Every structure is written in structure tokens, then in C-alpha cells.
Protein 1
Amino acid sequence: MFGGAFDPPHAAHVALAQAALAELQLDQLRVIPTGQAWHKTRPLSPALHRLAMARLAFADLPKVMIDARETERAGPSYTVDTLRELQREQPGAELFLLLGADQARALPSWHAWQEIVQTAIICVADRGDGADKQPRFSAPKLLESRFRQLPMPALPVSATEIRNQIATRQALGPLVLEPVARYIEHHHLYQTA
Ligand code: ATP
């Protein structure tokens, strides 16, 4: 499971998915755009756009499925609810949760985080920014085996930076995916900061 706002999806999201496919022998990778992000303060773009951009961004990766369930669920999107559903749908499957280092650090603030760690192996990718040097969330000894580092090239890019570049009419950096950039332009997304 790879969750996120994907507002918009960018090259680091795709690189993280590629790293997971290469490293974890996944049968399937579910990219799951969040519905109501309880941990983000700004309102997200409509789910319709985020789903469409995710389909464009991940189109070339095998085994990736864009899963709309969190955008269809009422109330805040809790990862634990999604993992419970996946577990029910695929009994016996080994589940992995992909996270950037920032989200891994925030994990102890997530709803039912201990159940999350017991349900899925947590695979963490560095973001290639200064924050990677910050102390990591250190898992209690018993849970240490549930965490894995996901090797991937450091790509210091964020959706926030991309939205700001668009709102302030700056040139987009190389880590904005071409089909996603075209979609953004066509639908006039992120025009205001
Ligand atoms: P925003 O800037 O709006 O907060 P974001 O770029 O962090 O967005 P999200 O959609 O919130 O993107 O991220 C989804 C997942 O991808 C999170 O687990 C996040 O940590 C991870 N991620 C995002 N950018 C990177 C990056 N540059 N390198 C590694 N992981 C990343």
C-alpha cells in the first residue's frame, strides 16, 4: 500500500514505487490517494483530479493499481482502516506500507499506529532533504523487525514546492512528470498559492 495526497504526484512518488517493486517482490502495488487527510491543514484538490493525475503518473509501472477506496469513504482517511480492508480481501497476503521518512517519523501520531505496524511491514524511503538527518522514530524493540529501509535515489522534491512553483508562475523543475504537468495546465490547477 502506498498512500498519499498525491496533490500532485511527482517523480519521487514514482521512484519510491519503483524501488518497492524492485526490492519487495510485490504481487501488486496499490497506490491509494487519501480522501480526507486528517494530518494536512490545507484542503486537498478534488479527489477526481488527484486520482486522474495518479493514473497518469504511475501508468508505466507494472503491477500498480490506483485504488480509489479512501476517496469514496466518508470521514477521515485512516490507514489502519484501509489495511484492515486489504487484509480481509486478501487473507494470508503479506502487506507492506510504503512511507517517506517524514511520514515514518510522524507514524506514532497516526490513529492505531501499533495495529498498523502489526498488520504491515513499514518500508521507509529517505526524502533526500535535510530532514532525513533528524532522529528517526525509534520503534520499541519488539516492533523493530516490522521496519525496513527502502533504498532509492534521493529526490528532494515535494508537492508543496510544485504547487508553489505553479502559483508563482515559476518554471517547473525536472521532477514534475510531463503528463501530470499537462493535466495541471489543462485543468488550471494550483493557480493560487
Ligand atoms: P506535500 O508537499 O503536499 O505534503 P508530498 O510531496 O510530501 O506532499 P504526499 O502525497 O504527501 O507528497 O506523499 C505521499 C508519500 O510519498 C509520503 O509517504 C511521503 O513521505 C512520500 N514522499 C513524498 N515525496 C517524497 C520524496 N521526495 N522522497 C521520498 N518519499 C517521498
Protein 2
Amino acid sequence: MTLEELKASIAEIGEKPFKAGQIYSWLHKHNVDSFDEMTNISKDLRSYLEKNYYILTCSIEKKLISVYDGTVKYLFRLHDGELIESVVMKYKYGYTICVSSQVGCRMGCNFCASGIAGFIRNLSPSEILSQIYTAQKDLSVRISHIVMMGVGEPLDNYDNVIKFLKMISDENGQNIGMRNISLSTCGVVSGIYKLMEEKLQLTLSISLHAPNDEIRSKTMPVNNKWNIDTLINACKEYIKVTNRRISFEYAMINGVNDSDECAKELAKRLKGMLCHVNLIPVNSVKERKYTKSNRERILSFINILEKYGINATVRRTLGSDINASCGQLRRGEK
Ligand code: SAH
């Protein structure tokens, strides 16, 4: 429940709004997972809450730590036994968590591990929040940045994701600024149009991965519903409405989308847009045959983009020894 919902809910038993504020703060600022810990709430109210409400938590099924860079990958078990993964990364500016938005994924990008075991269900706002709260408590650190780049397609779980964003940025809870949050989509255009109307200051990332429909449709089925022109038009509109720079993700796949020709085609498409390109040497997924482009290929690609005036960087790979990198998260490790 948002704070407003909680206020309305306890008003039904005659409780004052400030009580809701206290409860909300226990849950979302202090991340307690039992009503007993709410020490400034009367015993009577605590037992009423205990009987009529529940606190959704997730438990740590497995935890892996990268020996290369300290990245931590969690396998979380949800209340109904389903499994999801989240990753915590340490940067100079603090800790970032990569959260999942669904159990599995139905987008079917063929280089990604997240959809291999199919789609089960959406995560509730609480289940997205609890990934952050549980990791934060386990590591005894404060997480300051969030990327919605774990398992699932956030814009395919639109309402729950928006509610999560509002709650995680609420000043009565974790108060994480929208500017510290990135949301990545494989190109659900209907969702991009809805999202721009929310006028949030978050960073929108688009998983583009190809400069033309021929390559994109072969690797990303979503392109059959919304092709590149439709997607880029939505992005242009998004920039116009929000005045925020868009980040395009482009996995460099050896022999598939990494030629100089591809770089030129990509540059022409993005010319003049307020955007940034993130090149990601494709990560291995054991069920798939793709390999990453080599260093020279990536440098040549980036040089062409820069020649055309497109900002681009190569994303640093973290957690590769524990399958915690982009595209490697899944619905439980079988
Ligand atoms: N469904 C959303 C959120 C997932 S974000 C989306 O597609 O954007 C995960 C990112 O990793 C996406 O950009 C995805 O395309 C990318 N990715 C998937 N498989 C990958 C792989 N094998 N190597 C590198 N990046 C990959």
C-alpha cells in the first residue's frame, strides 16, 4: 500500500493518519519484516495489524559473490515458491541494485536467459521493493541507485512497476531520487507512450541491439509488433515530452550486428536525438550460441558512432564469473 492507501485503510478502524505514517516508515524506511518491531505502535494496534495485514518479504535462497569485482547475485524465493534473481553492484558513487520485475519473461529475445524457462507471473510492487530491502539488510549497506534490468519486461507489468517507482522514491520510505533510477524496455511502445505521461525524471533505456528490422526481428520478437521506426518515433516523442536523454543498449554480437555497416545505419537512425549508446559485449548464455565481438570490432564500431556525433560508451562487465551480467539473470538456477 502507498501511504495514502494505508491512511485510508486504517481510517476505517478510526486510526489517525499519522499512525499510517509511522507504520509506513517502519516498513519502507526501516524495512522491518514483522509488526512486533514497530515499537512506537500500541500493542493493540500491532495485534490488529498482525491479524488483518501481512508483510511480503522474500528469502535468500542462494547468494553468490564475484571474486573479480565483489558483485553479489541473489536468488530470492517468493512467498509462493517462485524464484527470481537480483544483483548488487558497487560503484564509486555507491551501491546499485538490478531488480527483476516479473517471474520469467514473455518477450523471447533470443540472446537472453530471462525468458528461457518461460513466463509465470508479474511481481507485485512489494515483491520488487522487497528485493531491495532484503539485499540492503543482508549487506548492511544503503542502496542508492536502481536499474530495472533484471528478469522480466517492466513495461509488460506497467501498473505494478509505476506503483513501485512511486513507493521507492517516496520521502517517507527509501527516498531514492528518480534520477538515480533507470528503467529498461525491449521496446514495448504502448508502455513508452504511457510512461512519458507520468513525467518521471528516471532514465529510460531502450534495448535496441540492431540497426534495422531485418536483424532485429530475427533476434527480438517484439520487433514484429513494434518495428524500429515505430520505436524510434516513440523515443523522439518521449524526449520531447520529458526532456530526458534516452540510453540505447546495444549488445555486440559477433557476426550478427557488429559490422561497420551496422554502425553507420545505427548512427543515421539516432542522429540528432538526445541520446547515449551503451555497447555491451554480448554475455554468454549456455543455451545460446552467440559470442561477443572482439575488442577491435567494438572500437571500430564506437569510432563510427562518434564520427557521426553519437555519444557512446562500452559498458563495463560486472559479475561475469557468477552469471550476474546483462542477459544472464533467470527465473531460478535449475
Ligand atoms: N526486458 C527489459 C529489461 C531487461 S534489461 C529489456 O529488455 O530491456 C537486460 C538488458 O540486458 C537488456 O538490454 C537486454 O537486451 C540485455 N541482454 C539480454 N541478453 C544479453 C546478453 N546475452 N548479453 C548482453 N546483454 C543482454
Protein 3
Amino acid sequence: MNAIPAAVIVLAAGEGTRMRSSTPKVLHPIGGLALVGHAVRAARATGAPLVEVVVRHQRDRVVEYLAAFDESVVIADQDEIKGTGRAAECGLDALPAVTSGTVVVMNGDHPLLDGDTLNGLIARHTEQANAVTILTANLPDPTGYGRIVRGSDGSVERIVEHKDATDAERAITETNAGIYAFDSELLRSALHEIGNDNAQGEKYLTDVVAIARRRGRRVDAHVVTDLWPTEGVNDRVQLATLGKELNRRICERHMRAGVTIVDPATTWIDVDVTIGADATIRPNTELLGATSIGAGAVVGPEVTLTDTEVGPGATIRRAEALLAVIGAEATVGPYSYLRPGTVLGPKGKIGGFVETKNADIGEGAKVPHLTYAGDVTIGAGANIGAGTIFANYDGVAKHHTRIGKHSFVGSQTVVVSPVQVGDGAYVGAGTVLTRNVEPGEIAIARAGQRNVADWVDRARPDSPTAAAAQAARAAGARFAPTETERHTDNTPGATAEGDAR
Ligand code: UD1
Ligand code: CA
């Protein structure tokens, strides 16, 4: 018998009142995926040719999410009649081609339901030729869940909702996970029979069970011992609890695959993140979205990476990056902010208090301290001095700057874009650079230095400072000329603004 279901119907039309949120419940994320995204993933793992999501509450938002997440998902709209039974009915009505075989119906709010658990349910349903197979678990605290009522022979007779249950029924710990395999014909006809005479005035999907029994059909439960996949999110407390467990499972998977995670309790990794062997993730780190970490990289402490690619052997600490690429053996941090379009070459460096955006930094190039580098291409082996600002915005438009290979930009330079610095060129410290610099040139644009002899004696007579100066002079102390004096200041006016070339 074919164990692949004809369709999986995900119920996601409910309001999720207990979330107290303007966002529909099924769009709340854990592990970087909305709850309904987790449901669709599990549904896809069955191999079913049709995966359908039933929507109603804020349907456009849910549909928009799904279109981006999995464009081949079928959308069905639930009408104003409430309840999971009505949702399943609307879902099935939108799949007229499904006339036989198995249909899986699952709540859209069970993010830890995985493909293996779902396939286990389907396998049992198929092997035993059941009309209905319910995923169940024995929960230590079954409050709120539907209870599985079994007859004296142990067979499943019906499901009673917590709100409709007697005290004796509430004492039952076997609960309905809200995940079922049905014979599609039985489901279709039984759903038409269901009323709404219950505590919530809704059409309950769970009532299909008693109807199947009345018709003499086989109903069975697939009892699982891993309780997490059976737990639904109804409020934000459960969202956090399940989010933490999902994260624990993700961390465990990476550790078993050869990643060192120093403190899994403070490391948050989204489901789709990939990490190479022998990478180390240090505490208080978030790896989000489509982030990938190369083998042997060291990430953390205190790093948040979103949709960022980290090369093998790179080191990143106390940093935040979004849509960035960090090359092999490059180093980032501490206190660095890499914004979209940052590409750091192999062995490159982005150091402390540096912000980058649309910055292509070549192999071995260094931006070590206190810099803003936006809209810039920095050649291989170049060095950008402390405090350099790439002034890419003139108040109207953004402009792009190019710094050549093995060039050296002195500290506290303001590069007024657009401007080009050739390969192997220098820019003197403190320059406000507004003109291009050819290869091999040095550019200096700042007020020339003026030293006024004996100023201290006149302006601060009888001070400790004046005494110190006099003592030094008496001892005959003189400084040797600095590099700058020897190489540039020997040209009169070389350091005066605009005279550098
Ligand atoms: C449901 C089950 C309960 C089970 C529990 C497991 C019913 C009647 N009860 O209760 O036995 O123990 O799940 O978590 O099925 N939905 C719709 N349309 C609606 C109402 C709900 O699509 O009109 C969707 C929701 O979006 C949600 C799912 O169905 O994804 C479950 O709805 P929810 O209201 O959370 O059901 P529970 O009260 O938890
Ligand atoms: Ca629920």
C-alpha cells in the first residue's frame, strides 16, 4: 500500500486569540521560521503531491508569507463557520481531485512536529488500514488539549475537548496532538455530518473519530513518547518554551556533527544555518536566517549574524552582520557593525568600532579602528588608518570610492566621495580628500603645522610647564626630524591645504 498521502492539509485559519497579537499566530517565528513554515516543511517531508494551507484570519498576510516560503503550496479559504472541522472541510472542498487514499490533516501551530514523526503516523495508518489514525501522547499536564477516550477494550472511541470534558475525562492524560491521517472518503462524508453543539459552538474536526466508529471503521492512535512534536503553541509562553527546545535540538545536531558550542543555552541558531566541522561558537551568539559558517571558524562571544557567509578559519567576536560575506581567515571585531553588501576578503580585517556598508574589502586589507566605510572598494593589502571616514553621502546622493591595492590611508582622513586613490598611494593623516590620488603619490590636505618658539615662557610664565621646558632646554634636548619633516615638509608649503601635488 502506498504510504505517501494524497494530500496534507495544514490548518492555519484560526485567530490565535491567546497570543494577544496583531500578527496572526501561525506567523510568529521560532528558529527563524513562522509556525506555519515549520508545518509546511513537515508536510513536505511526507512526499505528498499536494500540500494545502487553510487560511482565514489575516489571510493576506499568511498567503504572502507562504508565497515567498513555498510557492507550490495550495491555499484554501475557510468561510465564517468556525472550528477545525470546518477548516478541514473547506480544505478538502478545495481539493476535488482527491477522491481516494490518505489525507493528513494537521494543526498549523506545532513547530516541533518533524517529518519523521509524521511519517511514523502515516506508516501506521497505512499498515493497519485504518480509517482514522490520531497522533497522541501522554502529557504530564494535559490541560487544554483534547482527551483520547478509549473503550473498555482499549480502542479509541472518541476525542473530547478539554472545555467539554467531565472531571473524569479531564483526568485522562492521553491527548490529541491535532495531527491525523484519514481515509479521504471517510473524512469527506464525516465532515458533512459534524455539528457545532459544544462548549465553543464550533465544528470540531475531532468529532470525525466518533462518526468513524459509529460506521464501524477502524480508528487507532499512534502514541509517541517524544512529547515535543505533539505540543501546540497557543500563547507566548508556549512559543518561548518550544522555541527553546527547538534551539536545543538544533545545537545538539550541530554538536553531533562536529561543531563546538561552548554554551548552547546562550547560543541561538536558526533552522537553516549551516556550520562547518570544527567551528567554535562562543557564548551569547545568534546565527540567523541563511547564515553559513565555514569549517574551523570561531564565532562569538556576542555575535549576531543574519544571512551572512563566514569563510573557513575566520574569527568574529562582539559583532553584528547582516547580508555580509566574511572571507577565509578574516577577522572581525570587537564592536564591529557589518551592514548589507559588506564583502571582506580572505585574511582581511574589520576591527573595533568600524561600521561598513557596500564595502568590498580586498584580500589582506585592513580597516582596523574607528572607521565608517560605506560604498567603497578597498584593494588587496590596503590599510585604512584609525578614524577614517568615507563620506559617501553629500546630502542628496550616495557616491562610491575606490582605494587601490596596497595603498595607505592615514588616520583621521575624511574621504569625500566620489574620489579615487590609485594602487600603491598614500594619504596623509588628517586629510580631507577631495581629489583623486595617482599610483605612487602621497596626498596631504590639512593646515600646515606652525611651531611658535618660547610660547610657554611668555604665555605660562612661572608654571610647572614653563619650568619643565626650561630644564629640558638647559639639558640641550632637541628632537630629530620626524619622517614627515624629512620626506614632505622639506618642500615649502607641502602640508598646506591643496598644495600636496
Ligand atoms: C485542537 C484540538 C485538540 C488538540 C489540540 C492540539 C480541535 C477541536 N481540538 O485544539 O483536540 O488537543 O488542537 O494542539 O480540533 N484552526 C483553523 N480554523 C478554525 C480554528 C482553528 O484553521 O476555525 C486552526 C488554527 O489556526 C490552528 C489549529 O487549527 O493552527 C488548531 O486550532 P486551535 O484553536 O489552536 O485548537 P486547540 O484549541 O488547540
Ligand atoms: Ca492549538
Protein 4
Amino acid sequence: MSNTSVPDIRRPKTRAGARIALVSLTAAALAAGAALTVATSANAGTTLGASAAERGRYFGAAVAANKLSDSAYTTILNREFNSVTPENEMKIDATEPQQGQFNFTNADRIVSHARSRGMQVRGHTLAWHSQQPGWMQNMSGAALRTAMLNHVTQVATHYRGQVVAWDVVNEAFADGNGGARRDSNLQRTGNDWIEAAFRAARAADPAAKLCYNDYNTDNWTWDKTQAVYRMVQDFKQRGVPIDCVGLQSHFNSGSPYPSNYRTTLSSFAALGVDVQITELDIEGSGTTQANTYRNVVNDCLAVARCTGITVWGIRDTDSWRASGTPLLFDGSGNKKPAYDAVLSALNNGAGPNPTTTPPGPNPTTTPPGPNPTTTPPPAGAGCTASVSLNSWSAGFVATVRVTAGSSGTSGWTVSLTLPSGATVTNSWNTSASGTSGAVRFSNATHNGRIAAGQSTEFGFQGTGSASSLTPTCTAS
Ligand code: G3I
């Protein structure tokens, strides 16, 4: 099974060189996809991560902290992958087992293992109906909304600068129910819980890409796919901070790889978000499994904004669906035909920057809708502030953007007056004084210094209603 015969031929300096080498492939070899296990491209990479990187993408794996002491496991991880997703260790039950008491031990181990070896980290996941700790399962309404937002804020803040992309919200849509939202305690806090989570994540880690992640969203014609598409389209139009869509892509006979998968990827991408294949596994074996893996990789390579692929585990025996042998390495760590197909596709597959978008049933253009977080250009010295409000029946989250004027700032204070009945309960990236009426928010230690014309964001959350707020900003 192992593809140890792949020649380690140095790649030419230009992609044109690679193309010339590809021309030497026979038509028969191209037609017999599986025959491409012997890489014939002059720029063949020899590991999944290196080959994906040559195409401007990452290739990652879900990793379990308790396997980091298994040297057979880490040998493959360290050799093949350049991105890591903690399989369970960043979930709510793992990171906040008791309300307000955070435990990052196992997640930190994975993050440290990855980053010390130059791998990037995808965060999974901040808000989910499943794997909630008992205390959260028992909550509802405004208290749950507040607890959820606090969890998002605390975890995203802990990993600020270390996680390149977050699955902010996971699996919020129902299966086969006309594209309805999944019923859950989070959903029952109000339909806007998803956007509230995204705003809190943005405020906590402005540099991380924020993704919505789900399964059974691979087939473009399925109601659930269309429902997620409409949500992302709506978020983009209203300026809700979303940067990417994660397609989990757990394929088996009940949920097979769809022939319109590329249309799904390109249609989401056309909304102006990255697309990531976040939890790929394909049950099966041999050539059939290998061919499906190849199709998935080629589909991603054909969509410029498909930025990377993560497989949900390393060896078949590491998989949540171990009996379906859905991964790229067998239980002994040997490369399977599926591995060879993926590597071959990464080295030889479709071009990296296609400009065409396959047609889909929905329009794929993004209307130039107003962005509620737009900040007026800085005028003179000092600073300006603008507020973006996300309100629900019993509360609100305010995201405040502070923009430095022509002199930059070494510190700042934003003042505003809350309407009667509104009370600040929580804030982040700021030092707050006052909870009602006239309140002030000063910079935290890390975000006081803003270069001329640049911005930073902080946020606060409250109970009651804050229909409109007029902030004033003072720079020091
Ligand atoms: O670690 C304990 C162990 O101590 C205990 O003896 C054992 C008894 O059941 O449980 C172990 O924990 C299990 C954990 O996996 C680690 O293996 C949990 O019970 C089990 O529920 C958990 O399953 C995880 C599942 O999410 C939970 O929903 C899988 O590992 C994980 O692969 C899976 O990942 C999800 C993604 O997060 C979201 N998309 C679907 C995907 C597959 O279900």
C-alpha cells in the first residue's frame, strides 16, 4: 500500500515547468485516475502538508491529546500534516467543565505540539448543542445566552494569536427538515444566537478566521446546504463577521460524496467567504475509496477559496468511525491507496486559481449591502468610535470599533450613555467603569496603542435594551 516509490524529484521553479511535465502523462494514465500513484509531475511533493502548501493550501488532521504520547501516531502527524484541529479538547465540556472555571490543559498540549512544529491550528468549536457540560445543558434563556457568549469570549481570548480559524458555531441546522434550525437550548435563546456568537468571537480574536461548520451540507441540492448558504449570504449582507464555511464532509453510503460537491464549494466561496473541508473521512477501501478522496481534493483545488482540507483522524483506528476504515493510514500506520490518491491529486490536480464559478440555483453575487460596523474615516488627531449592536429580547452585545486619528493613540477611552434599564454585565478587550447610565471603556493593556488610521475592537454585553448608542472617543 505504501507509496515509497514516489521519486523525490526536485520541483521546477515555475508552475509552468510543472505543467510541461504534466503533459508527458499519457491519456491512459489520466483516464485511469488510480494509476497516478506514481507521481510523474516534476514538482511532486512527498508529504500531504508540503504538497498542499505548494498549492497555497493546508492539509490537516484532527488530533487527540491522549495520543501525543504514541510515537507511531506523532511520527505520521509530524511528517505529513501542517494543520491540526483538536478533536475534542476545545469543546465546551472540555474547556469549561464548571461554569466560569476554564481548563485548557489538553487543548494547550495540542496547540503547543502543533505550533512548535510550524503547524497551524483550527479551533473546534466554541458554540454547539452537543458536548455541553452539565451546567450548560441545564441552562436556558438569557442566562444561557450570557454563558455562551462568555464561553466564546474566554476561549477565543485564551487562544488569540494561536488559532488561525475557529469553528465558531457547529451544526446549528436540522437534517431533512426543510432547512430549519436545529432545536437546542442555544436555539431557544433566540434565532440570533449564531450571529451573537460570531460577534463575540470577532471581538475576542479579531485576527482569527471565523467559520460556520456543519455536516450534510455537501450536496448543493439539499435543503440544509441551501439553508446554510442563505444564512451566510444574510450575514455577509448585514456585516455579521463571518469569514469561512466548514464542510465536515463525513462520507459513507448514507451520506455519499455528491457529484455536485464542487458546485457547493464554489457557490459558498462566491459569497465572499473561504471554504474549508474540516472533518473529511470517507468510509470504504481500496480504489473506490481512493477515487473519492481524489475527487474531493480535486474539487477543493478547483476552487480558489477552498483553502485547506482536514481529515478527521490519522489512522483508521483513530477514527470515530473506525469500523468504516475511512482515513488515509491503516491501523499500522501504512499509507493506503487513498493516501496515494490524495498526494497525487495535490501534486497533479486542477490549477490553483480558477476564475470560473460553476452555476448554481442561487445567485452567487454579494450585494454591496451596508456594513453596520463601518467606521467613519479618522478626522484629525484623537480617535473615533462606532458601535455595532446585536440585540435580542432581553439583552444585547455591543461591538465597538475604535479608530485612531492622524497622531495614533497610546491609550483611549470611549464614553457613552446607556438607555434607562440597560446594564453592562460583561466586557472584553477593555477596562470598563460603570454599569448603567454614563459608562466608560478604556483600553486594555494590549490594545491602547493604535497606529494612525488603524483600528481595534472591544465589546460589552448587557441586559435590557440598548437600541442606539452614541459613543465619543478620547485619545491619550
Ligand atoms: O475519553 C473518554 C474515555 O475516558 C471514556 O472511557 C469513554 C467512554 O465512552 O469516552 C471517552 O470520551 C469519548 C471521546 O469521543 C474520546 O474518544 C466520548 O465518549 C465520545 O462522545 C467522544 O466522541 C467524539 C464525538 O465528536 C462527540 O460528539 C469523537 O471523538 C469526535 O470525533 C466527534 O467529532 C465530531 C465533531 O466534533 C463534529 N462533527 C462530527 C464529528 C464526528 O462525530
